[in-house]
Amino acid sequence: MIIRVLTEGQYRLDGNALAELDAMDDSLLDAVGAGDEQQFAERLRQVVELVQTRGKRIPDDELVESDLVIPAPDTTLEEARELFAGYPRNLR
C-alpha cells in the first residue's frame, strides 16, 4: 500500500506494518470521535512514526498514486474532524 503523509512524502508499507497501522488508525479515529486533543496528537504522532520507520520512502521524483493519505504531523483535532469525514475504518 502506498501511503502519503502530508508534507512528509510517500511511503510503501506492507505486511505486519500495515496490520499495525490499521489498528493504530482505528485508535486515531476513536480519539477524533471523542474530541480528545491530547490522545489525538499522540496517536497521530505514532501513526506517522510507524509509516516513516517501517515504510520504504518513495523518491519525490517518482510519481505514484497514494492509496491512503495521513494528515501532516501538525494537524489539529479540528482539522482532523474535517479530513476524516467518511474515512474508512478498515484499510485492507
Characterization of the model:
With 92 residues, this protein is an alpha+beta fold. The protein is 49% helix and 15% strand. Strand 1 (2-5) and strand 2 form a beta hairpin. It has one domain (2-83). The chain has helices spanning 15-34, 37-54, 77-83; strands at 2-5, 9-12, 56-58, 68-70. The model has no long low-confidence stretch (mean pLDDT 89). A 4-stranded mixed sheet has the order 3-2-1-4, with helices on one face. It has 3 helices and 4 strands. Residues 1-86 form the PspA-associated domain. InterPro entries: PspA-assoc_dom. This is PspA-associated domain-containing protein.
Kindly state the percentage of residues in helix. 40-55%
Silhouette: globular
Structural class: alpha+beta
Biggest sheet: strands, sense, closure? Answer: 4 strands, mixed
Instruction: Give the terminus-to-terminus CA distance.
Output: 9 Å
The residue-averaged pLDDT reads: 89
Helix/strand order, N-terminal first: EEHHEEH
- Share in β-strands: 15-25%
The parts where pLDDT drops under 50 for at least 5 residues are none
Question: Radius of gyration over alpha carbons?
Answer: 13 Å
What's the structural domain tally? 1
**Looking across the biggest beta sheet, what order are the strands in?**
3-2-1-4
The count of helical stretches stands at 3
Number of strands: 4
How would you concisely characterize the structure shown here?
This protein has helices at 15-34, 37-54, 77-83; strands at 2-5, 9-12, 56-58, 68-70.
Give the topology, please.
Elements: E1 2-5, E2 9-12, H1 15-34, H2 37-54, E3 56-58, E4 68-70, H3 77-83
Parallel strand pairs: 1-4
Antiparallel strand pairs: 1-2, 2-3
